[in-house]
Amino acid sequence: MELILIRGLPGSGKSTYAKKLGCFHIEADMYHCKDGKYEFDSSRAILAHKWCQKMTMFAMEQGIDVAVSNTFTQAWEIKPYLDMAAETGHRVKIIRMSNDYGSVHNIPAGVMQKMRERFENIAGEEIKDDLSGV
Questions:
Q1: Taking CA atoms, which of 4, 13, 15, 86 is between 20 and 30 Å from 101?
Q2: Model confidence over 105-118: pLDDT tens digits?
Q3: Measuring CA to CA, which residue among 102, 97, 88, 84 is closest to residue 133?
Q4: What is the pLDDT of residue 130?
Q5: How far, in Å, CA of 58 to CA of 62, rounded?
Q6: Rounded CA gap, 5 and 69, in Å?
Q7: DSSP characters over 56-89
Q8: Chain centroid to CA 104: how far?
Q9: What is the mean pLDDT of the chain?
Q10: Mind listing the domains of the chain with CATH numbers?
């Protein structure tokens, strides 16, 4: 059983890569989809991440492989997932997407710059600069 954490800035290919893996895929952005349309609400961001963690744990308790694709700009954001993996016996793989395909969510340039500035390296992560290799 494996938990694959896919991280990177918006538009780096996280979701596309995760979908290619063929396992259960979840991300906080899914929480913001209503009737097939993405409607981000910053006041619900914490709820979105809690929901993502809950869905991840549910899937892991079923003993399946899970891919989570979120920005995970800082190491502390990954910790709840590492704790879940330890609890369920899932191996952890961390993949960082480093390309820029352009965000589909129209994130303002200033917000993107702040995300770049706070982005931390995580020991042992695999860095991918394209969507191949799945």
A1: 4
A2: 677 788 888 988 99
A3: 97
A4: 77
A5: 7
A6: 6
A7: HHHHHHTT--EEEE----SGGGTHHHHHHHHHHT
A8: 15
A9: 89
A10: 2-128 (3.40.50.300)
DSSP tag of 105:
T
Count CB-CB contacts under 10 A for residue 37. 7
H-helix or E-strand containing 54? helix 45-61
Q: Over the stretch 26-41, which tens digit does the pLDDT of each residue have?
A: 999 887 778 778 777 7
The count of other CB atoms within 10 Å of the CB of residue 131 is: 16
CA dist., res. 50 & res. 90, Å (int): 20
CA distance readout (Å), 44 to 34, 36, 96, 97, 121: 13, 18, 25, 25, 27
- List the structure tokens of 20: 């290619």
The pLDDT, as a whole number, for residue 104 is 67
Longest CA pairwise span in the chain (Å): 40
The Cα 74–Cα 7 span in angstroms is: 10
36: left (phi over 0), alpha (psi -120 to 50) or beta: left
Structure tokens at 18: 């995760």
